[in-house]
């Protein structure tokens, strides 16, 4: 019999779901990364929602909502399991701005939601376990410095526009995010003759994965291999930091990025959909 379980804290959620989520760690990296980001996992957060569907004791599907969108995942092939997740948000009148997850689950959630889909991004999720040998561009791979936070925050703002992200973050939110990455030693740059050419960061961490994101090169510097070099060295750094794999997301409609990452050593593992609601 299907049962929807609601968890009040991150620790309560992880106690029953972490093991099965880590069986598909790349596919569940957003949910696991969100859970890992909580400094105190025993505090109940009123605006956060952690729910799962079980058939008896068998895990079927799950959703986490801490951001404007719901994240959805599962192992089920039965859309009725996803219907229970969407129904929870519908019945409790929880305002969500969209849903993100593997395409089969995100689309099923949207169909059962009482919201109207207004925009959709198709994303490829890539995985790397070994960096390919390739020629690097002229320059050096360096950790980003706090003195460059304003500059790199503007790059991040341009990145979200280039990536067609929605909803857009405010400049204040971006500044705080980039400052946090720098403070944690998770943002890196490709530097040539003292000038910043490109950036890339570790945007999420799970047990065995470092997720690469915020990959950006200003338009006038593109086509010179700076982003490729930066991502390659960052991927090496992740693998040398006790993580077994690297992951990253790209838009399906961006063949240039997909080609570059394949040359570095990334291979497509699954497809996600990022769907915005009205």
Task: Draw up the topology in text.
Layout: E1 2-7, H1 10-22, H2 29-36, E2 49-55, E3 58-65, E4 69-74, H3 79-91, E5 98-102, H4 103-112, E6 117-128, E7 140-143, H5 149-162, H6 171-183, E8 187-192, E9 195-205, E10 209-216, H7 226-239, E11 245-251, H8 255-264, E12 267-277
Parallel strand pairs: 4-5, 10-11
Antiparallel strand pairs: 1-2, 2-3, 3-4, 5-12, 6-11, 6-12, 7-8, 8-9, 9-10
How would you explain this protein's 3D organization?
The chain is α+β, with helices and mostly antiparallel strands and 278 residues long. The protein has two domains: 2-115; 127-271, Gcn5-related N-acetyltransferase (GNAT) (Aminopeptidase), CATH 3.40.630. The chain is built from eight helices and twelve strands. The chain has helices at 10-22, 29-36, 79-91, 103-112, 149-162, 171-183, 226-239, 255-264, and strands spanning 2-7, 49-55, 58-65, 69-74, 98-102, 117-128, 140-143, 187-192, 195-205, 209-216, 245-251, 267-277. It has a twelve-stranded mixed β-sheet with strand order 1-2-3-4-5-12-6-11-10-9-8-7, sandwiched between helices. α3 (79-91) crosses α4 and α5 (149-162) packs across α6. The two termini are 33 Å apart. The mean pLDDT is 96.
């Amino acid at each position: 019999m299907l049962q929807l379980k609601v968890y009040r804290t991150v620790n309560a959620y992880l106690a029953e779901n972490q093991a099965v989520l880590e069986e598909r760690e790349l596919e569940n990296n957003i949910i696991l990364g969100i859970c890992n980001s909580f400094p105190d996992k025993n505090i109940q957060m009123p605006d956060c929602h952690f729910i799962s569907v079980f058939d008896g004791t068998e895990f079927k599907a799950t959703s986490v909502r801490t951001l404007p969108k719901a994240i959805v995942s599962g192992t089920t092939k039965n859309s009725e399991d996803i219907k229970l997740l969407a129904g929870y948000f519908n019945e409790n009148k929880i305002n969500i701005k969209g849903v993100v997850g593997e395409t089969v689950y995100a689309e099923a959630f949207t169909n059962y939601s009482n919201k109207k889909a207004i925009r959709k991004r198709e994303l490829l999720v890539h995985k790397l376990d070994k960096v390919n040998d390739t020629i690097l561009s002229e320059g050096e791979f360096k950790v980003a410095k706090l003195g460059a936070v304003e500059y790199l925050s503007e790059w991040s703002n341009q990145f979200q526009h280039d990536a067609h992200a929605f909803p857009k973050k405010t400049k204040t939110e971006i500044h705080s995010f980039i400052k946090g990455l720098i403070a944690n030693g998770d943002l890196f740059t490709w530097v040539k003759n003292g000038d910043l050419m490109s950036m890339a960061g570790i945007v999420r961490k799970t047990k065995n994965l470092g997720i690469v994101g915020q990959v950006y090169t200003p338009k006038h510097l593109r086509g010179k291999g700076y982003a490729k070099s930066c991502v390659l060295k960052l991927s090496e750094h992740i693998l040398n930091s006790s993580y077994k794999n690297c992951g990253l997301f790209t838009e399906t409609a961006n063949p240039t990025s997909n080609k570059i990452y394949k040359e570095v050593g990334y291979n497509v593992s699954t497809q996600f959909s990022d769907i915005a609601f009205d």
